[in-house]
Amino acid sequence: GYQVYVVRYPFFRGVDKLAEELAENLDIIARKEPGKQIIPIGHSLGGFVWDQLLHSYPELVKQHNMPLYIPMGSPHYGTIIARIGPGKSARQMQANSDMVKFNLSKKFHKDLELYPFVSRFDLLVLPIETALLRNGINYLFTETGHIAQVVKNETICAIEEIISTP
């Protein structure tokens, strides 16, 4: 019963550029769905891009009626695996990058509920604690890897539970 929009991210570009493009897509979606809530769900780099957008433009939470945000396997504090990744976005996801420092210096909008997902077997977000947030309810999955977080039934059930809870 939900309208889902998928926004793809070419990982060779910088996260700041991808966040600008996401903002443009968000405006298009809001025009197609006037008055509806928008619930951002970002996996991996997608969550990192949402972090950048929501920290840079916190007013978007109210403007686009966003009650909650679900980052999945997103390295909020950076990941050591980014050292071997190609492209600008990989460099920006390294633990001590300027972008990670920027995001860590910010807080999410006070009205945005956070539900970060992390997998115990995520080999791309290391250490896995970088996908956890101090605020919000962290979901720890024990049977999924990085990619499986997107397709496993337990993930879908958790998202449905979060969205349907008033």
Walkthrough of the structure:
With 166 residues, the chain is α/β, with parallel strands linked by helices. It has helices at residues 15-32, 45-56, 60-63, 88-92, 98-105, 148-151, 153-164, and strands at 41-43, 68-72, 113-114, 117-119, 139-141. 38% of the residues lie in helices and 10% in strands. The strands form 2 sheets. A 3-stranded parallel sheet has the order 1-2-3, with helices on one face. A two-stranded parallel sheet has the order 4-5. Helix 1 packs across helix 2 (45-56). It is globular and about 40 Å long. The protein starts with 14 loop residues before the first helix and ends with a helix. The model has no long low-confidence stretch (mean pLDDT 91).
How confident is the prediction overall: mean pLDDT?
A: 91
Low-confidence stretches: none
Q: Helical segment tally?
A: 7
Based on Cα principal axes, name the global outline. globular
Distance linking N and C termini: 16 Å
Number of strands: 5
Order of helices and strands: HEHHEHHEEEHH
- Spatial strand arrangement across the major sheet: 1-2-3
- Summarize the amount of helix as a percent range: 25-40%
In terms of structural class, how would the helical and strand content be classed? alpha/beta
Strand fraction equals: 5-15%
Round the Cα radius of gyration to an integer and report it. Answer: 15 Å
Largest sheet: 3 strands, parallel
